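Figure caption, in words: inputs first, then the predicted bound structure.
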Amino acid sequence: GAPKPRLTFVGCGYLGATYAICFAELGYEVLGIDVDSDKIAKLSGGEVPFHEPGLDELLRSNLAAGRLAFTTSFNEAAEFGDVHFICVGTPQRNDGMSADLSYVEQAVSKLAAALPRKALIVGKSTVPAGTATWVQQLVAKHADPDLAVEVAWSPEFLQEGHAMEDVLRPNRLVLAYQSAWAGGMLYAAHKGVFDLAAAEEREVPVVTCDFATAELVKVAANSFLATKISFINAMAEICEVTGADVTLLARAIGHDPRIGQRYLQAGIGFGGGCLPKDIRAFQARAQELGAGESLRFLHEVDLINQRRRNRVLKLAAHLLDRSFGPAGPDLSGARIAVLGATFKPNTDDVRDAPALAVTTLLANAGADVHVYDPAGMDNARTVLPDVTYHTSIAEALPDADLVCVLTEWTEFRNADPTALAHLPAQQVVIDGRNCLDAALWTAAGWQYHGMGRP
Ligand code: UDX
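Bound structure (uridine-5'-diphosphate-xylopyranose present):
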């Protein structure tokens, strides 16, 4: 068949680096580009600058195979690639709501200006509606018009901790393009994904659509997931005043296939680099488009999510027998062990992590907080330097008046409550993720408190 197009991934953060490595693994010749020379040096040296299971090994084998390289040079990338995937970040602006597109602007302008031949630029970053058309205008402004450079859009749905699978075996591909040539290039650039699926006798559903739909798919999917989580957390609040158990409630409603079991885990809510910022940027964009009303419920979704963090503070104050004044509780003199810092397990990411937010609330209330997380401590230290960090559960627990489990790492789920019971001063545990076996912990002599559970 036709030779495989050569691919570049512009922006080697979490998204771009994962894609670059996985597409090299699929047999493409790949170049990753980033303006951050430290990041590029690490990746070139075989080191993934973030924690993602299995990715290090894949990076090293593909570097060795000569299919994968990294650069800081836009000229080199422009010279190399037939298809360029834009994977730069779109962080939240200082207004706390809308998305900052300056990285997209820089990446596209520099790349377009350096292109020596016709190429396809594919947007992957999560962006507000209307960005693809704006990118086309940027390309028109910076690229040589004779080259007829084209733009396409294909959102990604990576889940941290599961990212390799999500790239190699996506549960769907969304492809938006405007010419037969662009469509052909996009399919060629994903042939490896289709071939792998065929070899495993799977199918990859493809949704071909216009730019506006492709841009919306990502934020709509994340809004749905965030809403599902806040829904069950709202039910947890109701369970707390009725004496019901939200874990059983979730299981019971989840047996209805129209609802499904997943994303109904009540606890301290959602965090991370995507869900919170995406639902805010989506609201800001809808407002600009005169459709703010349509997404007003996402504001409520956000509020429910924020309330879960305070719930742990309130419960801690109650369990430690402290009064809760207008300025919040005074927890001074109390020693609290916190297990978990990352926004979910199997990642070192602490961006907007509910666990760290709760830890900050506890520390600000005057508690002496002792934290252990299996992977996120280096990142946690930079965000929250003023608490004490430990390198194991057994080191974090001694003399604690209260233990809070805030991220559902397997190491915490599997911890033996009997073996740990002698360590703290009081055998009281708040299970912020409903991840512990309540009966087992109670039998081992602990006072167990879940979220939305009696
Ligand atoms: C999310 C989307 O899942 C992914 O498709 C998109 O591309 C990026 O955003 P990610 O940020 O990796 O991925 O996190 P995810 O696994 O979805 O979890 C988000 C947060 O929700 C975590 O803090 C998690 O603890 C929380 N969560 C998830 C719950 O509180 N309850 C649940 O039932 C599920």
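The pocket of uridine-5'-diphosphate-xylopyranose is lined by residues 157-160, 222, 225, 229, 263-265, 267, 269-272, 274-275, 343-344, 354 (CB under 6 Å).
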